[in-house]
Amino acid sequence: MIPTVRWEERRRSRAALGVPALITLFSVLCVLLLKVVATYRTGSIAMLGSMTHAAIEVFGAILAVRVRLLAMAPADHDHRFGHGKVEALAALARVGLVTGAAVIILWSATRALAAHDYLRDVNFGISVSLVAIAWRQALHGLRRRGYGTSDHLGFALPLTDERFGLATILNLIVVATLTLDHYLHLRGVDAVAGVMIACWLAFRALRAASVAFDELMDKEWSDDKRTRFLAIAAEQHGIKGIHDFRTRRSGSRDFAQFHLEVDPSLSIVVAHRIVEAVEAALGARYPDTEVFIHLDPQGHIDTTFDLNEADVMPKRSSDTSR
Questions:
Q1: Number of Cβ atoms within 10 Å of the Cβ of 268
Q2: What is the torsional sign of CA 149, 155, 158, 163?
Q3: Alpha carbons 79 and 10: distance in angstroms, whole number
Q4: 177 vs 26: which has the higher pLDDT
Q5: CB 236 within 8 A of CB 68
Q6: Is the pLDDT of residue 291 over 60?
Q7: What share of the chain is helix, strand, coil (3-state, %, to 5)?
């Protein structure tokens, strides 16, 4: 079963790249520019971390839009399974960017601690952080009211979906470290905060890399999802067995394939109707999954690979009546 491409969804995604999304992106760039200036004027490592996170958000938002549209492109002659894996490749690119940023922040923090650097123009840095917090709360409020947002795109969702997310926490950390370092004379707290931010960014990069790697390596579904999927297939009448069940994920789509056993005395027409019934049942419950079914007569097991289970059909009391 190969579902048709959802052209309507693709059209809505392209249409969403309008004025509201551009205004959101423009405001993000303005805040990022303020943070660049604040980082230069204050010399704060914590501000550097906050600025780096903002830059990664902007890059990720722009990349998410382009990648999302590419991943939704229909299968073609050279990519018959679609373009879903481009999302995992983009995730790895972002991981490299985040990792590099974490290294730069860590190096800057170490140098600041060794040189005993003092902060400058602290009030400007605090003001920029407060403006960034207010801006995020305003966009979050607009998103909650449904203005200029789209759940498909990277503009609105990663940038404005959290009222008290990581970006806000980083801005508060900047305000706290600038205050403690400059006004309470706790020297070095800004650099320590920078180290903490770098470690957190590195942790997030490692976690994202693990997810992207699993997708590129065609990791199997979870046992729970596999069990639920097979239970739906096994509910259809006429099925005598299921074997060689394999699954994977590519972008926003899942893929599942298995061998379906039926009574060998059935005609091709009747056996084909059973397959169609299984496809319809699975398609109704898993619309984003492409299902590939190979038909076998009952008792014919052609498994040649140890990891392909010879029989994975759920056992039910009704089986004996078939």
A1: 8
A2: negative
A3: 18
A4: 177
A5: no
A6: yes
A7: 60, 10, 30
| Residue of 85, 96, 105, 102 lying closest to 44 (CA atoms) | 105
CA distance 200 to 19: 34
pLDDT for residue 144: 65
**Alpha-carbon span 145 to 150, nearest angstrom:** 12
| Residue 157 region by backbone torsions, left for phi larger than 0, else alpha for psi between -120 and 50, else beta | alpha
Cβ proximity of 248 and 219 under 8 Å: yes
Q: Residue 138: how many CA atoms within 13 Å on its side-chain side?
A: 9
Q: What are phi and psi of 165, to 5 degrees?
A: -95, -165
Task: Report pLDDT for 146.
Answer: 56
pLDDT at 27: 79
Residue 163 confidence (pLDDT) above 90 = no
Dihedrals φ, ψ of 221, to 5°? Answer: -60, 165
Tokens of 38: 């604040």
What's the confidence (pLDDT) of residue 309? 59
> Of residues 61 and 150, which shows the higher confidence score?
61
**pLDDT tens-digit map of 188-198:** 899 999 999 99
Helix H or strand E segment including 307: none
Best CA proximity match to 64, nearest among 39, 100, 28? 28
Cα dihedral 200→202→208→213 (10° resolution): -150
